[in-house]
Write a structure and sequence with these properties.
Elements lengths: L8 H9 L18 H10 L5 H17 L6 H7 L5 H11 L8 H10 L3 H19 L5 H15 L5 H11 L5 H11 L4 H14 L5 H7 L5 H13 L6 H7 L5 H14 L4 H11 L3 H26 L13 H7 L9
Length: about 350
Amino acid sequence: MSIQKPIPFSELIEALLDDAKPFHPRYLHRLSDLGPEEASMLAENWPKVSSRRREALLEDLEEHHLADDLLWFEEVGRLALHDINPNVRILAISILREYELVDLLPTFVDMSENDSDTGVRAGAAAALGTYIYMGEVEDISAAKLKRVEECLLGLISSSDATPIRRKALEALGFSSRKEVVGLIRDAYASGDIDWLMTALLAMGRSANSRWNPQVLKMLTHTHPGVRAEAASAAGELEISESVPLLLELLDDADIDVRMASIWALSQVGGEGVREALENLRDNTSLDEEADQIDNALENLDFTEEMRDLALLEIPENGDGAGESSEDDADMEDHISEDEGV
């Protein structure tokens, strides 16, 4: 059995610069985990690569990263973050946000506030959600968390383009700051479909059961995008009452609704879920849907295992039993169960 030799990086650079030939997919893995010399060589040649190819390259790298999270395209992403092509910058943000690189926090804050392109600003605002989550689980300092929160709150209250403000609220969905509840509630009741979907996404990220009634109500909305976001939120919030409706949505005419419902059912679990997913897998003709079901069945195994372990835990001295948050109760008074769009 012969061992395949690594592709010389100089060969990759030559291929990248040659617009007359397609950039072969075999080079993409070679761009993972670049060393200092390779990163320097790429940076030197990056301006010589056509804008169209730089954009196509970042699209391919994003797709590969989503398919294999062991691939690490940090050096390419950092380089592309300052590209003159805004689409390249957007793709770079999308890749780098997954790596939880704390040193990029100020860069994303600056880009969300000051970049010349609306799409880049919206992408950077979305990326700041990573740092909100990290702050909530104390992976970054309280000072850094506050900086991100203040940036996002400023964007929401500004006169910026709607996509920027929406992404800012979605990022804040992870935040436990009290004012976020009112912002989500206002978006939910706005009468605007796009803001409603943003509100549902933020609700799902909140890990707060206060939103269960609103999420359940939107599972039967006439707009498929709303149904899909509601299904995702029901899964993230693990709303057991959503299972009958989610099972019905497995027959939805919209593929995005079905895909969201498949995954949500794997997060919630419950009676009849495994059988329904297996039956759908046996009858679907779509590879994308079949792959989603296979992944969902694996996740359902994990969900059921964690639930079984939780049942085995015995609380000591009844700690936590029957306790409720006074702040939650106060804020719940302001939320009407009759809200809707």
